[in-house]
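in:
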């Protein structure tokens, strides 16, 4: 059955990541420049967190919503750190996991992106959109 296929079949491996020591403004630029909604946070190659575009919007558009990009970046970098904003120790799936495992974790935890790891090293990400594309092929 197709849902027992390895998650590697549908996960993205061309990842955009941010390192845990980088400024928060880099995240804003990543979300602004690409069609990306979740950014894994790494230390070296090890997954240490994840941040969604919604997480960033929550901290950047309250009282700061009327600033231009440069001013907003300065405020974000002065006020926040990646470590303080990211979801630490995110739920992840081992590279040996199945598509069914990924679907169960996404549904159970009610989020839309699941990092895929190999012994703690980030190797991919699977999203709810990846799962919908997979199901559309059935």
């Amino acid at each position: 059955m197709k849902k027992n296929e390895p998650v590697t079949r549908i996960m993205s491996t061309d990842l955009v990541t941010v390192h845990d020591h980088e400024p928060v403004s880099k995240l804003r630029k990543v979300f602004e420049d690409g069609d990306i909604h979740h950014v894994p946070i790494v230390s070296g190659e090890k997954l240490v967190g994840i941040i969604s575009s919604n997480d960033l919007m929550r901290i950047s558009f309250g009282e700061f919503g009327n600033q231009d990009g440069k001013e907003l970046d300065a405020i974000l970098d002065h006020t926040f750190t990646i470590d303080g904003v990211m979801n630490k120790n995110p739920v992840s799936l081992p590279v040996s996991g199945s598509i069914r495992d990924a679907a169960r974790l996404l549904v159970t935890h009610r989020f839309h992106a699941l990092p895929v790891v190999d012994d703690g090293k980030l190797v991919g990400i699977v999203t709810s959109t990846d799962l919908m594309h997979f199901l559309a092929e059935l």
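note: The domain at 2-137 is CATH 3.10.580.10 (CBS-domain).
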